[in-house]
TrEMBL record:
The chain crosses the membrane at residues 76-107, 165-191, 226-246, 270-294. It comes from Brachybacterium muris UCD-AY4. Residues 305-350 are annotated as: Disordered. This is ABC transporter. InterPro entries: YedI. The keyword Repeat does not apply. GO terms for cellular component: plasma membrane. The keyword Ion transport does not apply. Keywords: Membrane, Transmembrane, Transmembrane helix.
Amino acid sequence: MAGGLAALLDDVAALARLAAASADDVAAASARAGAKAAGVVIDDAAVTPQYVQDVKPKRELPIIWRITKGSLFNKFVIVLPVLLLLSVFAPWALPILLIFGGLYLSFEGAEKVWELLRGHEKKAPAAAKGADAEDAVVKGAVRTDLILSAEIMVISMNSIEQDSLWMRAAVLAVVALGITALVYGAVAILVKMDDVGLAMSKDHDSPAKQKLGRRLVTAMPTVMKVISYVGMIAMLWVGGHIILVSTHDLGLAQPYEWIHGLEVTMGGGVLGWLINTFFSFLIGLGIGAIIVALMHVLPFGHGKNDEHEEDPAGNMAAGPGGSRRAPGSSGKHPAVGDQRDTEISPNPRI
């Protein structure tokens, strides 16, 4: 009896060691996979804040949470099962799916460039247009997230050395959770920094804190504008890079080989990365511009119908870095707009 119990305990200990080793393997593989996808993660973080630009402060976090839930749905219900199935039954199809994703991102980025050049933006974020406009913003953000999530997960899966299907599934699940928390947590902090600044500016016991708070509130419109442009550029860069790499994976030597040759000539490193990024951006912009032109010419396009779209207050939409302005409003991100302008005096002594 005692011998049987000892053997059972040995088996339990062995299983525990095996589980711990497997957990370590998953953690290590997840870290490597996440690092490989870092570039797309940065793009995801840059793209997302523009969707809550011009949103009332009290709706910022709820919208981010809705997008976060949509992102988790994308990763766990759509991307993860599809990638695992394709990796087993049709690995050749992955580059094709990525090309479609790259085309979509290139189109989105080029359309924003076109709207910027025209002086107004068809897909400006919802400000005070109600639940329908907010739903449209969330759906658009989740669609873009689906493309970026697929790219992140594919890059992560390609970096997994283990052949086990369950190990790949575990690593991808950890990557999906970690990256989603990182991206949308950072976005939530970013878009609420003006609220932090407002609270600091009301601290009459600390002039230094008041001054810092006012600077935060003043700086955030510029920060959000810069981020909106970074997001626009990121869409073109990532979209072009997806197309560049995926077409090469399908057997198309050029232009990938030519660009790679330039990278090698420049010695690789940061300069090589900049060359690849620059040409990826040009590819995304060029292909995206063609798609935008087709969308505005073909019968099912939407260019003519939206030529003079206005918000309910009669204000034209702004470009990627701008905002829909209500009469008498400041040009700021509403999170630091009229309400906060009235609460914060320009006089250093509040």
